Amino acid sequence: MLIVSCSHGRHIGSLAAKKLNCRYSELHINKFPDDELYIRFNFLIKNHTIVLVQSFYKNISDCIIEVILAARTAHELGARKVVLIAPYFPYLRQDKRFHKGEAISLNIIARLMDKYFDAVYIMDPHLHRKSKLEQIFKIKAKKLTANALIAEYIKRHIKNPVIIGPDEESYKWARSVAEILKVESRILRKKRYSSYHVKVKLNKKINLKYKNVVIVDDIVSTGHTILETAKILKKLGAKKLYCICVHGIFANGALNKLKKARISVISTNTIPNKMAKIDVSSVIATELKNS
């Protein structure tokens, strides 16, 4: 097995390779003056299983073209199998045609992955109407999760916690973490008017006095859902507020807004950022070892 990091996979690929004690390299990537991508493998890959690691954040279109060029090239050069590890995977929101004329982006991207890869592993995908990756991809596809790592972080660093999910979609993460820790949890209801305008509502009362409240979600993008949730929790007497997420996108100054609201923010390192204190490479390494 050879682990190869693409442009946005170096922060995790190298760590996973060390844990597996396997060969590691970085894909050579450059751009021509007109912005066309140039990629090259730095070693012979014939008869090897090639594991490409790419987290699809920022410049997402470039990230997609990178892995397609790399996967096709690996097959042409005789790789036994080509696997994609995606700590963060894009285009999962647009899983149906909400308005006339829209592209169903998820299906289009999934077909590209089917064509060029033998298997895909995604860390905590943000699924909506599809409940399993097997419903999206035709190739082998498996969801990996950071829930146990998040629970372990809370156990080590936060005393007397209550777990809160900021909306119905977050129950997959918040409730699972609460069950691992055997602590109380609540899931709020959310109504979204736009990316920057949301309202949340607590559907069941809870006493938060003297409690350290941990908001757990998979993605924090603009941070508006977390900020609205925090307002409710503060009124209920929360001692201290934490926000732990898997994928810290933190767009448009979200991190500063959360800090100003006195929310302690922690994320995993699926997307590198200043608050990435939970390393998911052990989950990836374990899966590769057992697959």
Overall spatial form: globular
What portion of residues belong to β-strands? 25-35%
The chain-level structural class is alpha/beta
Radius of gyration, taken over Cα atoms and rounded to an integer in Å = 20 Å
Helix content: 25-40%
Distance between the termini: 11 Å
Strand segment count: 16
Number of helices: 8
Low-confidence stretches: none
**Succession of helices and strands:** EHEEEEHEHEEHEHEEEEHEHEEH
- Biggest pleated-sheet summary: 6 strands, parallel
Strands of the widest sheet, in order across it, are 2-1-5-6-7-8
Question: Could you explain the architecture of this structure?
Answer:
With 291 residues, the chain is α/β, with parallel strands linked by helices. It has 8 helices and 16 strands. It has helices at 10-20, 60-76, 105-116, 147-157, 171-181, 224-235, 254-260, 281-290, and strands at residues 2-5, 23-26, 28-31, 37-40, 49-53, 81-86, 119-123, 140-144, 161-165, 185-187, 189-194, 197-201, 212-220, 240-248, 263-268, 276-278. The strands form 4 sheets. It has a 6-stranded parallel sheet with strand order 2-1-5-6-7-8, sandwiched between helices. Strand 3 (28-31) and strand 4 (37-40) form a beta hairpin. Helix 1 crosses helix 8 and helix 4 (147-157) crosses helix 5. The longest helix has 17 residues, at 60-76. The termini are close together.
